[in-house]
């Protein structure tokens, strides 16, 4: 009799261990809101589309938000918090220079709150708006973005300067930062392809132009950049910038890699990416094959979006993405 019961007891123990493992390691899932807010992803998609047709640069902002939020500790919408209620906003950091359109996150959140109050996290808005923004930028449709993130109850302003790469950081530093959150070299090269959209302010360019032109820049391209940035001391509040990609400036595509192979990258890391033996083979392959770039970019976005999320009873579901809940 005792021997007959042993398998059952062992089976029950396995079930308990599986339950613990499942709770601790598999909280994010596809279509997390299928019961609590069935239209959540549809609402986010609709709002992203509507905002894009009113303010096209919002799509670029959603992509940048994902990166800045997830590389700092966790994909937990800490980036969206404003300075209030004892929180010091990450948006105050110099690494957040040029970021904008935060006010339109509230438009998306308000639509969700009207449908399903207190249900959909701001962290999932960050992830899903990036996914849908990429589509608006004619990039790949990324199907496997999981949900179920929760929102932080604080910010990490003191960590931003260390964890978010600077405009003149070395490639080794950037690769190390991405590796520390589980993103390999190939996916990192693909994620940097986000530089195919958006723009760089002259403040972050002039060190390559003055007092002498960086010899790694294509000479004709350098003259174009000097025309865009005519002063070595640009006003950070002025609209002085260059597009990352002059050919398809609002399209997520492989033109970025073609440009950097032609020595037409804006940032130091762009040049290093194209010439460093660790990354140059991936750059060449992405420049030659847009489908391969999309495949790796999609994989990189999925990895980035799953960085150390808060789940279960961790954190909270903010009522307003700008502030921690008061209760």
């Amino acid at each position: 009799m005792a021997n007959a019961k042993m398998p059952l007891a062992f089976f029950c123990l396995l079930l308990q261990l599986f339950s613990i493992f499942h709770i601790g390691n598999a909280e994010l899932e596809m279509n997390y809101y299928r019961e609590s807010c069935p239209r959540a992803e549809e609402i986010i998609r609709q709002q992203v589309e509507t905002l894009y047709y009113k303010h096209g640069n919002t799509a670029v902002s959603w992509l940048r938000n994902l990166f800045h939020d997830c590389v700092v500790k966790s994909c937990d919408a800490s980036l969206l918090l404003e300075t209030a209620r004892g929180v010091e906003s990450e948006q105050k950091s110099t690494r957040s220079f040029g970021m904008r359109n935060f006010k339109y996150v509230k438009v998306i959140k308000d639509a969700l709150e009207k449908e399903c109050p207190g249900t959909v996290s701001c962290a999932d808005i960050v992830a899903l708006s990036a996914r849908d923004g990429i589509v608006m930028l004619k990039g790949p449709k990324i199907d496997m973005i999981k949900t179920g993130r929760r929102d932080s109850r604080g910010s990490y302003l003191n960590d931003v300067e260390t964890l978010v790469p600077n405009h003149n950081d070395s490639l080794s530093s950037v690769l190390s930062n991405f590796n520390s959150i589980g993103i390999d070299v190939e996916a990192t090269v693909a994620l940097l392809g986000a530089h195919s959209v958006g723009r760089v302010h002259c403040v972050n360019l002039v060190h390559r132009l003055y007092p002498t032109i960086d010899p790694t820049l294509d000479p004709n391209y350098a003259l174009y950049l000097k025309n865009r940035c005519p002063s070595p001391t640009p006003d950070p509040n002025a609209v002085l910038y260059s597009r990352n990609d002059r050919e398809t400036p609002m399209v997520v595509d492989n033109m970025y890699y073609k440009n950097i192979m032609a020595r037409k990258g804006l940032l130091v890391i762009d040049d290093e990416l194209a010439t460093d033996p660790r990354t140059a083979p991936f750059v060449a392959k992405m420049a030659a094959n847009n489908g391969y770039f999309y495949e790796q970019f999609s994989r990189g976005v999925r990895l980035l979006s799953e960085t150390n999320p808060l789940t279960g009873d961790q954190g909270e579901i903010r009522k307003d993405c700008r502030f921690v809940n008061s209760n």
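Strands lie at 199-201, 241-243. The first helix runs from residue 2 to 25.
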